[in-house]
Amino acid sequence: MWGWRGLYREGTGGDFQAFIPDNQLCSAGHTYNAEFAAMDTPGPWWTTEVGADFTVDVYDLAQHGADYLQVYVTQQGYDAETDALDWGDLEMVAETGRYGPAAHYTVDVSAPGRSGHHVVYTIWKASHGDQIYFMCSDVTF
Prior knowledge:
The protein is an all-beta fold. Helices cover 3% and strands 38% of the residues.
């Protein structure tokens, strides 16, 4: 895997759910010749411990700017170790406006009522074109 920078889609016109089917969210719909398909496999992935309130920090090496960030967290009852991620497993917990070019875009998130292993799904719409990045992060609440 050459880097997470391959986890993007272009030309979606903002309708990225039409381009990324259930069970392929972490690979951005098997983008980049399905090189990232293994990321869709559920299992005991390494997790980061977070509380109900946490900050998502997107690092933008190229400093493209962001039209928006959308942050989703899996609903309580989702089993990250046996169930591949579907759109219906997610609850949007934060959505931002624009960010100017910077190295980091941060968004404060509140996701109460969760415990155990979950997935944080972040969508970053870069400002330089119709390029949308998709990031899965395994966390433990």
